[in-house]
Each structure stands twice: as structure tokens, then as C-alpha cells.
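Hi W., the dinuclear copper ion complex you wanted:
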Amino acid sequence: MFSVRIRVALGVITALVIALLSSTAALADGPWPNDPQGPQAKAVADLYWIMFVAAVVVLAIVDGGIIYAGIKFRERPGHVAKQFHGNNFLELTWTIVPTIMVVSFSVLSWQKLDFINNTRGSDVGMVIQAQGQQWQWTFSYPHEDRFKLLDGTYLQTSEELHITVGTKVRVELSAKDVIHSFWVPSIGGKKDAVPGRATELWIQADKPGTYKGQCLEFCGDGHADMLITLVAHPVSDYDAWAVAAVKDANRAIDPLTKVGRDTFLSLACVGCHTVKGTTAGGKIGPELTHVASQKSIAGGAVSPVNEDNLTRWVKNPPAVKPGTKMPNYNLSDQQVHDIVQWLLTLK
Ligand code: CUA
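Structure:
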């Protein structure tokens, strides 16, 4: 009963709707504002859904009306297309309703923005600094004594930002070279880090977990790899993380680390092991460039890779793993200690 043209039009509309729905479904999986995990992201998602539903209703009414009128009053054999001019009720309706909608959206957006931009409230429980540079984020924890290092500076982490669950965290942004943008979609907030200018936002995670984020301002070749991993710890775990992170950082700046490195490089170790960035280039034993990040070494005989296990291993390898090719070099306790302290910095 429909003409070819109408059938083609209906087909195109159906295809567009299917494409829209399937792309929305695909996005539902990733880091996306529609998966809010904090109050700020929820504020954005609420606004998004209110506007989305309103837009769908408007779309249905307007396009439904156009399609209905186009079909019902169209010209066809035996019928002349009807012409309509002026209808006060309709014209008032489609002036007043959109005006009310736009004003409501403005007020709602204003309220949400006020909430989102409130980085200086007394409810802020933690302050962290984030610096963007090509192509990495560095996070510093300069406002708590527990993050103070041996040399008087404060802990820094790269790529990973650690916070506690349920705490409102102010993130103070800066940029070293070009403009970057901080964004962790499911936690909310997105703010540019601009060279020479201080900007800030706040974040809060409602559940423990790891949330993915990304630099969102094109900043050069490495832009796509400028990732953020936000780790939200339960309060009870955060202390343990902080103590371990500070211990790690202290180890790396400790003069002992240099002694350990020199000891390692002066002994037979270098004949078998490679540590990139040093003169150790041996190929017989396993590479140790990232030994401190490995889950285990010596084929699983030393696991996990921590200070105690490494100490036992370096002190007397055959005692830990009979038959190993690494002999007991009868190192002094001091030598073993120094070497292990250095190995633990190889991440
Ligand atoms: Cu940094 Cu894009």
C-alpha cells in the first residue's frame, strides 16, 4: 500500500535506529559516563539521561508527526495533497514547550556544574597533585606526613593514582609542556591541565576498584598511551599501600642502592645477567631489568619476589633450588643486603 519512496524512507530510518542502539550497547561495556561509580559521575549521568529521554520524546513526537502527516495527507491518485496554514494552538505549543525545556535544562546543568566545580568545600578529604607531560601523568601526595620520603620530598607515582573509597579528593592539575586533560569517565570529571595555569577538579569513588582513565586532549604522538589508572582502596588497605609505596621510593633514593648496584656490577653477576641501562650484559642467566616486578624467579623457586626471598636466594642459591646453575659466591651479609636493596628497585 505504501509507495516505493515511503518504503525506502522507512527502511533508512529503521537502519539508523538499529545503528544507534547497537553503538550505545557497544559503549556500555567500556569506561563510559553511563557507568557512574562516584557522585560526580552520577551527577553527569543523571543529566545525560534526563536530556536523552527528553530528546527521544521530542524526536518521537516531531518525527512521528511529520511521518504521519506525510503519509495521511500526501498526494496520491484521486487525492490532492492538503495544505495547512497557521494554527495558533500548535504554534504556541511548539514555542512554549521548547522554551520551558531549554530553561529547565539550563537550571539543571547549572546546579550540577555547581556541584561538580566545588573543589574547595570542607568535605574534601585528600589533596593530590597531578602533572601531565608528554606522555605520562605523575601524581604527588604532598599533604600528608606519611608520604614524606627520606630526602624530604613527597611520594610520587606514575600513571597510577591511589585514593581511598568514599573520600572526596581534590586533584590539582598542572602541565609541563603542552595542554593535557585528566579524565576518568566512570568516576567523572574532566579537566584540562594547562601549562602555566592552575586548574583543579575533584573525584570520588564509591566502590573499591581500579578505574581506567585517559588523557583527553590531543598532546602529540603518545597521546593515546597517556593512561590513568585510578585505584580506589578500602580505607583499611590504603595504609598498607602507602607504607609499601613509601618504602619502595625510599629504597630507590637510598645511597645504599648505589652501593648495591656497584657491588653487583663488580662481581661475577654481570657475566650471566643483563640489566638494561647498566654494564651488565650477560646472556647465560635470566635478564634482571624488571626483576622486582616479577611474580617469581628461579623457575618459581623464589616466589614472591620480596626482600626476604631474594636475600635467601642471593646468599645461597643451591640451598633454595638444588641443581641451579647459579653457584654460592659466599657473599658477605652486607654484600647480599646491598645487592638485594638494589634489585628491589628494578621494576
Ligand atoms: Cu596528554 Cu593527550
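Residues 132, 135, 180, 215, 217-219, 223, 226 surround dinuclear copper ion (CB under 6 Å).

W.
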